[in-house]
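Subject: Sanity check before I submit

Could someone independently write out the structure tokens for this chain? I want to compare against mine line by line before I put it in a report. The sequence has 294 residues.
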Amino acid sequence: MNHNTKGPPPGKPRWLRKGLSSGPEYERVRTILKAQKLHTVCQEARCPNLWECFSRHTATFMILGTRCTRNCRFCAVRHDKPKAPDPEEPRRIAETAEAMNLRHVVVTSVTRDDLPDGGASHFAATVHEIRKQVPEATIEILVPDFQGSRDALRTVVESRPDVFNHNVETAERLYPAVRPVAKYNRSLDLLSRVKELDESLVTKSGLMLGLGENPEEITITLWDLFSVGCDIVTMGQYLQPTKANIPVTRYVTPEEFDFWKETALKMGFLAVASGPLVRSSYRAGELLDRTLKR
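---
Independent answer below. Compare away.
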């Protein structure tokens, strides 16, 4: 297993070459989202699984606009002054989830440091609307850190999603270069406090590999997540979305991703998704099912 982190990577390896596809389901999802004036992280973050997920009739809704108040160096979402939250957005997301016949609804957002509660009340309203419109669906939220606000976190937790996801993204050493406004320990504290507020909530976090981390740092990060009660972890290959973003330091092999999956499972995580094209919400419903069966 090659853990080399030096030098620029060669051309994109074969295991990252994914064919693009379209079809009636893909077009139907795209049409529904456009008609409802909704955004997905699949589109805004240039996810490599967009065509697969749309074709499988799934999508991850992105609330609170398409402009982020932070400028993380790995992310393709635009950094700019955002607009005021749309009060009708939670209802439209719930109606769209019903129209798409979703059984597991994933909702994320841009970071809104400009809002007093960081957008927590908008998350809570979205969860409540989905519960009313699609009561049989499970709900997963992928949230920012709310600048460490306990009140904002409580607002979201009390809305009772099924899965609370917050990504640490990378090793602590790389935060100044990769996530200059975020704080590693603040993210860990957020996940820890979720369990303090409601121990029944499933918690989840994700890592990107290929940003310059070393094996020891991956291990430490996994242990840190497990120590704060994180139930599910995802690991995927970082891919540079634009030339303005931080470059890839290495392409991690499928075999190494398998190694990290086995490592995390042995630590005690209830479910792990680890692979080159894995993303935070990739086949999220299946991961939750695996967790609940443990």
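---
OP: Matches mine. For the report I'm noting this point. Residues 45 and 254 are 23 Å apart (CA to CA).
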